[in-house]
Structures are given as structure tokens and as C-alpha cells.
Amino acid sequence: MNLMDQKFAELRAAGRTALIPFLTVGDPDLDTTVDLIVQMEAAGADVLELGVPYSDPLADGPVIQRASERALTNSSVTVGACIDVAVQARQRGVKIPFVLFTYFNPVLQIGLETFFQQLAEHEISGLIIPDLPIEESEEVLALADAAGISLVPLVAPTSNERITRILSNARGFIYCVSSLGVTGERSSFHEGVEQFIHEVKSRTDLPVAVGFGISSREQVERFSAICDGVVVGSAIVRTIEETIPLLADSENRDKGLLQIRDFVAQLKV
Prior knowledge:
Blueprint: H1 3-14, E1 18-24, H2 30-43, E2 48-51, H3 62-75, H4 79-91, E3 98-101, H5 104-110, H6 112-121, E4 124-128, H7 138-147, E5 150-151, E6 154-155, H8 163-168, E7 174-177, H9 193-201, E8 208-211, H10 217-224, E9 229-232, H11 234-247, H12 253-267
Parallel strand pairs: 1-2, 1-9, 2-3, 3-4, 4-5, 6-7, 7-8, 8-9
Helix pairs in contact: 2-4, 2-12, 5-6, 6-7, 11-12
């Protein structure tokens, strides 16, 4: 049982729902990402998604695309740099589990065996690869299992007959997509999303989290009532974007970090 599995077990025993923030590593720079991870744990994050910036994303909406552009422009962030950020956060005392959110091409560039060896050595508990279909994931899943890394699948309302196969190979938790399309803040979600989540929950013993579009405390409360975890991405990345002028000013940097911490804290239910 890796660190993420332990966390979900603890939360389930306590009757609590995981708050799972997402941030783009390297936005606006690598040192600030380490500071943000520290602040998010202090704000109540239970698990943290570390987004690897990528120039040709499949699932990322415009807010996260802009964050990736900043990270790639300012720091040329690689998968290795993302793992190093996690290491630095651990050295700062952060204990929450990390899930790496990346695309398949950067993984292939490192080499699968080297990649999983690095994840295992540095306590990355989970992995999400949205452009790796379940039908082509056999080798990756085997290596992930061998390294003790949970390969977390995305399940959408349109997955239909593929849901059973996706769930049968799932590890860690099931990531239910609340709406069709890319990530981004939304005021409404896919019609029947609650029924979809209940259907997924009825077919797995793994924790079920929901993400894509969730941006407010009210929405976190809504989904916390029926899920084991709620992922908030674009709203946090947008808050970081709006705070960059403060983060770039040495006299106001702490004020900027606290603004982001406060935003994450008010999402916690």
C-alpha cells in the first residue's frame, strides 16, 4: 500500500472526502512551486496533483495551457524537474501523497523503466496519463505495479461499455470526469453526472474522485457528498496566475503565497 492508498484509507475510515488540488509545476517557476506545495498542505490538501507542463495537451483547458506555456518558457520544465520539485517539497517537510499528471510522450522520452524507477525512489504515489488509452496501457500498468505506483484512470460519462474494462485495471482511485471537453471552471456539469458517479461507485471498491470544472466551495460540497475525492485544478491555477505580480515581488511574495493558501483553504469541507 503506497502513501496515497494509505491516505484514502484514513479518509474513508474518518468519513472524510479528499481535497485534491492540481498545480502546474514550474508556474511561474520551480522554486515557487515548492513554496506552493508547502502552502497547499497547510491549507488542508489531502493529495496533490503535480501537472507536468506540456506543449500539446489533450485534456488541459486554456487556463492550464497558459500555465504550461509560462513553465516551459520560464524554466523549460521537464519530468525530471517535476520529480525534483517533489523531492524538495519532502525536504521541506511535506507529507501528503503526490500524483503526477503527464502525457505519454514525456514519459517515453525518459524511458519507461527509468521513469518508474525515479517515481518509486522519490515517493510519487500515483500517475495519470490522459492520452494513454486503456487498450494500450498493459506495459505501463505492469511497470507501475512493479514499482508500487498507482496508474489512475480517467472515466468520462461517454466511456459507456469501456467503463468495466477501465475499472478492472484501475489502481489508487478512479478519476471521474464531471463534464465533456477539456478542463476549466464551469457553472454547470454534464447532465446526469451524479448518476454517472453512482454507477462508477457501484462497480468498484476503489475510491472515486471527480474533477474537471470544479472551482468553488459550493461545488466541492456538492460532490463531496457522493465522492471520495474532489479535484480542483483550473480555479487554483487561475488564482496562481492572478497572483504572479505579488509572487514576483520580493516584498509581497509572502502575501501572494498566503492568498493562494487562503483560496485552497476555503475549498476544504
